[in-house]
Amino acid sequence: MQPPAAAVLGIAPHSGWAAAVLLAGTPAAPRVILRERLELSDARLGGSKQPYHALEGLPLAQAQRQLARFRACADGLAEGALRALLERAQAAGVEPHAAGILDSAGHSGATLAAILASHALIHTADGNHFRTALAQACQAVGLRVARIPQRELSSRAVAALCQSPQQLTARLKALGSGMGSPWGADQKDAALLAWLLLAT
Fold first, then answer.
1. Do strands 30-39 and 94-103 pair parallel, antiparallel, or not at all (unpaired)?
2. What is the pTM of this model?
3. How far, in Å, CA of 2 to CA of 140, rounded?
4. φ and ψ at residue 34, rounded to 5 degrees
5. Domain spanning 5-199, CATH architecture
């Protein structure tokens, strides 16, 4: 029996969901195995698509308790979504070994009180809430994780894959040609991240 082919997962997170693309093959000849939407928020389970926005105006102690519930929900959904994706990958004959998560350019590390006092920090914290859940879920299912800033993705891919931005754009369009809709900017970014990791 043939061993499963190695594959890499690229993830482009949003508030409450993420686009995920699984690539296998080689840097010279990548191929898309799966294109998924990972749901990371469910109000019925105590989650929120904009958790820090939902905490605005609450007393700090109450906000901390509510945030813990939001985190537990996002963590559980992220891990469940990744385990389901890995099962589909294995059924397709591939074995993911690493994942990349597109990171934001915003600052993190502020206290909850500081975040809730700044609308700009609230926006950044909402995104990081789901990135953190995804990173922890990747580790829980045995995937090595790399977090690549969104603004560095294109330049790093150009350097690692030895192709011009125009060549990469054409290849990414071709990669998704047989996948159907959606194959927009989120899926292309996730695919490019996975392709970058295939090369590195």
1. unpaired
2. 0.91
3. 26
4. -140, 150
5. 2-Layer Sandwich (3.30)
Per domain, the residue ranges of the chain are 5-199
Residues 137-177: tens digit of each pLDDT: 999 999 999 999 999 999 999 999 999 999 999 999 998 88
Three-state SS at 143: coil
> Does residue 60 sit in helix, strand or coil?
helix
Q: What DSSP line would sit under 85-104, residue for residue?
A: HHHHHHHTTEEEEEEEEEEP
* Helix axis angle, 150-161 to 165-175, nearest 10°: 100
Q: Report the distance separating Cα 74 and Cα 135, nearest Å.
A: 11
Q: Tell me how long the chain is.
A: 200
* Contact status, residue 51 vs residue 133, Cβ threshold 8 Å: no
What strand order describes the sheet that includes 5-13?
30-39, 17-25, 5-13, 94-103, 144-149
- 181 residue type, one letter: S
List of E strands, the chain: 5-13, 17-25, 30-39, 94-103, 144-149
Tell me phi and psi for residue 40, to 5 degrees: -120, 5
Give 79-108 pLDDT, tens digit per residue: 999 999 999 999 999 999 999 999 987 666
CA separation for the pair 127, 48 (Å, rounded): 12
